[in-house]
Write a structure and sequence with these properties.
By secondary structure, the protein is of the alpha+beta class. It has 15 helices and seven strands.
Length: 381
């Protein structure tokens, strides 16, 4: 059998094709040229008659001569009777290849979520780091690509893209494709600008504990209780204002479709902290059907500006709104890795596709109950 049939010129000149292909050097050593242009050294061998393959490293980082030395060393170990562990070793994947593998494996999220993440990778990251080997990508490389998005005014989208890239790198680390996750070294609060939002302002997650501590000083004031419950449930302000005691069923709130933005019923699991707020409001209800009645008319709900006025008095005017709790909750839940579909159901967002658009108001209820309790424990330990 011919051996050492490759030359460095042949390896260097090899171009990507429509599919991965192999260039053989002999005695099991071959260069895999991927369809994305990557080049990987591998060696095939047999143990007890069974075909095995070991990855040696990427070309040209690992030269032809060095690949041959590794092949020969492996053959000597086999001839001496040493057991060689079968397996991939550290395979050299590009970021684009790793991203494709990772998102294809995500069966726990919706197709729409995967599509959104893949589109972000392809449009904003692959042109700059998609062809780079994972092991070669450093924090500065990823940050440079992300800052292009930030400079274009995509202040919210760049944070999601960093999060999605981090998921790819976390998976790659666990699968031994690389050693580090450079996305985790990027602090989005410091690296990227914040969008100027006036009417739907929302706190960043690190700002929430200080806000909750300040809110605690407001005691049992009705607007403070309403703000707490709004945070704990991630409801829209209108849905909270119109809430009635008759809609509370044990540890569930049943919001009728007449009050929902999408004209659909919603079941909201109530955490222990949320039930405490409701118990307090029931004790001071004075016979009103509303959980948060108007201070002058018990037959009417509280003013739509009560929570906003409270937030302003607390010193957070322009930085936070009642509606902002939905954004804060979404950021927290996504960063904690909760099922995106469960998060969307909690926010009463309805899928756009026809099949999944058959809405079930109790869908993901066990997941949402656990998620909201964990959220409440973080907000009010």
């Amino acid at each position: 059998m011919a051996i050492n049939t490759l030359t460095d010129n042949k390896c260097r000149a090899a171009k990507a094709g429509a599919a991965d292909y192999k260039m053989f050097d002999g005695q099991g050593l071959h260069l895999v040229v991927t369809k994305s242009g990557g080049k990987l050294w591998r060696v095939a061998y047999r143990v007890a008659g069974k075909q095995q393959t070991a990855s040696l490293g990427p070309y040209p980082l690992l030269s032809l001569a060095e690949a041959r030395e590794k092949r020969d060393a492996l053959r000597l170990r086999l001839l001496s009777g040493e057991k060689v562990r079968a397996g991939r070793g550290v395979e050299a994947l590009t970021f684009a290849q790793a991203s494709a593998k990772f998102w294809a494996s995500r069966k726990d999220v919706s197709p729409k979520y995967v599509t959104n993440a893949e589109n972000a990778m392809e449009r904003h990251l692959h042109p700059f780091i998609g062809h780079r080997l994972l092991a070669d990508i450093e924090r500065a490389d990823l940050l440079d690509a992300l800052r292009r998005m930030d400079a274009a005014g995509l202040h919210v989208y760049v944070r999601k893209t960093r999060m999605w890239a981090s998921q790819v790198f976390d998976w790659a680390v666990e699968q031994d494709y690389t050693k580090t996750n450079p996305a985790r070294l990027i602090n989005p609060q410091l690296a990227f600008a914040r969008a100027k939002v006036k009417n739907m302002a929302a706190l960043e997650l690190p700002e929430v504990p200080a806000f909750m501590a300040r809110l605690k000083l407001e005691g049992v004031l009705q607007s403070a209780q309403a703000c707490r419950l709004l945070a704990l449930t991630a409801l829209r302000t209108q849905e909270l204002r119109m809430m009635k005691f008759a809609e509370i069923d044990g540890d569930l709130l049943r919001v009728p479709n007449s009050r929902m933005k999408k004209d659909l019923d919603l079941l909201v699991p109530l955490s222990r902290q949320a039930l405490d707020v409701l118990e307090n409001m029931r004790a001071r209800s004075k016979g009103s059907e509303y959980v948060f009645p108007n201070e002058r008319r018990l037959d009417r709900p509280m003013s739509e500006n009560s929570i906003l006025y409270l937030i302003g008095r607390m010193g957070y005017g322009g930085k936070m709104t009642g509606h902002g709790w939905r954004s804060v909750f979404s950021s927290w839940a996504n960063e904690k890795g909760y099922n995106p579909d469960a998060i969307e159901r909690q926010l009463a967002h309805v899928p756009g596709d026809k099949v999944r658009g058959i809405y079930n108001r109790a869908e993901y209820l066990p997941e949402r109950r656990a998620m909201l309790q964990a959220w409440a424990d973080w907000l009010i330990p």
